Automatic annotation (TrEMBL):
PANTHER family: O-METHYLTRANSFERASE (PTHR11746). The lineage of its organism: Eukaryota, Viridiplantae, Streptophyta, Embryophyta, Tracheophyta. Residues 142-349 form the O-methyltransferase C-terminal domain. Transmembrane segments: none annotated. This is Uncharacterized protein. GO terms for molecular function: isoflavone 4'-O-methyltransferase activity; O-methyltransferase activity; protein dimerization activity. Pfam families: Dimerisation, Methyltransf_2. The active site is at residue 271. GO terms for biological process: isoflavonoid phytoalexin biosynthetic process; methylation.
Length: 367
């Protein structure tokens, strides 16, 4: 296209250019968010108790004075991205009553989720999802696409599975980081539990399969103290965890056998596995609840892609998650009809599905 081509074509091209550049540099926004989390900007504003100036923030964060202007530029992007607000207020400095003004930064609902002292803190998710162990593999995708092997991108890049990497004794800090991220995600469930009490009412026992360090089961146990809960996970994951009277930890392999209970809970489990292995897990769940007859159930908390009813932002998040599951585990996020196939292939007779916790779904399966 030359300089004289028609305006529409040019404007379309420029828009396309902006669109492409925006997607190329999306990682900068992600990494700036990670920096904000590492620096503890949200914690600093929260403990200060009121909006802070740039200099107050830099001093609270103990930054080198040469980095004040760097902080300003990070805050400009983070504010643009909705993590902070920037307002001009009358100066609060002593002797500043003479009409002087200052610019202050405050928290927004998304940055409130980075405050470490709050139970809704998602900083461990930011840390885990943007850790080099999750990101480096993407540099190997070209090689991966040309390979005739059923390897995940992670395996193709590193020579081992992500589970293998997590489970290596020497990488126990990474296992801890992964479990902390999962636990942070589970604590968000606290509010949702209020709305879905009916899901657990009437149950005598529950086994949380792949329940990690038990963050979700502890919340359920607090809400239903009489429910006998078991957190079931790989032996090394639950090895040093201690329970309470109605919460115990059991190590094992969900592909072999799952402890019996009235209900089985699977949160963030099936999206880690392909359809064949997911059906295997679901069949083991069905065996585990067989003692309860038709009253037993399996409760799944996972993503359901719904491009028709979800807005673009929500669908985008679900599709991003799908590629994370694909590249790390050969897992997948499923559309409703894919869930339905899985559920019936595993021998369940009915199910219902409802949205929960913003972007997840609660799926109840009945034998
Ligand atoms: C994505 S995490 C989900 C953790 C937890 N349900 C949550 O949402 O916070 C998957 C969990 O499955 C566990 N897991 C993987 N393979 C397993 C197996 N064969 N048997 C039991 N648990 C397993 C992992 O150790 C991990 O804790």
């Amino acid at each position: 296209m030359g300089f004289c081509s028609n305006g529409t074509e040019e404007s379309e091209l420029y828009h396309a250019q902006i669109h492409l550049y925006k997607h190329v540099y999306n990682f900068v926004s992600s990494m700036a968010l990670k920096s904000a989390m590492e620096l503890g900007i949200a914690d600093a504003i929260h403990s200060h108790g009121e909006p802070m100036t740039l200099f107050e923030l830099a001093s609270a964060l103990k930054l080198h004075h040469s980095k004040v202007c760097v902080l300003h530029r990070f805050l400009r992007l983070l504010t643009h991205n909705g993590f902070f607000t920037k307002t001009t207020v009358a100066s609060r400095k002593e002797g500043g009553g003479g009409g002087e003004e200052e610019t202050v930064y405050d928290l927004t609902p998304p940055s409130t989720l980075l405050i470490r002292s709050k139970s809704t803190c998602l900083a461990p998710i930011v840390k885990g999802a943007l850790h080099s162990s999750s990101l480096d593999m993407w540099h190997f995708s070209e090689k991966w696409f040309t390979e005739d092997k059923e390897l995940t991108l992670y395996e193709s890049a590193t020579g081992e599975s992500f589970w293998g990497f997590l489970n290596k004794a020497t990488e126990s800090d990474t296992l801890g980081m992964f479990q902390d991220a999962m636990a942070a995600d589970s604590r968000m469930f606290k509010m949702a539990l209020e709305e879905c009490k009916h899901v657990f009412e009437g149950l005598g026992s529950l086994v949380d399969v792949g329940g990690g360090n038990g963050a979700l089961t502890r919340l359920i146990n607090e809400a239903f103290p009489h429910l006998k809960c078991t957190v079931f996970d790989q032996p090394h994951v639950v090895a040093n965890l201690t329970g309470t009277e109605n919460l115990n930890f059991v190590g094992g392999d969900m592909f072999k056998s799952i402890p019996s209970a009235d209900a089985v809970l699977l949160k963030w489990i099936l999206h880690d596995w392909n359809d064949e292995l997911s059906v295997k897990i679901l069949k083991k769940c069905k065996e585990a609840i067989s003692g309860k007859g038709k009253e037993g159930k399996v409760i799944i908390i996972d993503i359901a892609i719904d491009e028709t009813n979800d807005d673009r932002e929500l669908t985008g998040l679900k599709l991003d998650y799908d590629l994370v599951m694909l590249t790390m585990f050969n897992g997948k996020e499923r559309e409703r009809k894919e869930w339905e196939k899985l559920i019936y292939d595993a021998g369940f007779s009915s199910y219902n599905i409802t949205p929960i916790c913003g972007f997840k779904s609660l799926i109840q399966l009945y034998p």
